[in-house]
Structure prediction request, 178 residues.
Amino acid sequence: MTQLTVVRGDLTRQRADALVNAANSSLLGGGGVDGAVHRRGGPAILAECRALRAARYGRGLPTGQAVATTAGDLDARWVIHTVGPRYSAEEDRSALLASCYRESLRVADELGARTVAFPAVSAGIYGWPVEDAARIAVETVRSVRTEAEEVRFVLLDDRAYDAFTARLSRTARNGKPA
Prediction:
């Protein structure tokens, strides 16, 4: 059974088999988590992302999908890049957000990753309300069959940490998603 944990901290300082990057579709870095992963991971990540763009993702990685690269200088073996949806009050995009977690775990299983660290995908500059992002993340990860022994949610700010901690404790108490 997969252990789910919540940690307050910097994703790029985590030790794990795979770190999940909340990437933009270009795979070429940007702001937020994506920029931090590329800065701390160094040029090897960008080089592999450029190769992926040239070979498979000329128009960019589609929203909800995931792909892996080296972790470069990070304390991990791989970075799994996933593109979260931008939040919309007019359109329900929660299936795309759930797909980010499912697809990232699928890629992690293909790689043989036993520890996977996630940020709060889409809950930063993409504007997803953090409580709902936590609900979707925790419910999705709990429902996925994975070989990962630990899935860690790594949250940089108190609000996200509190939302994920509350959601995780609620599902643990009830034994099912709340």
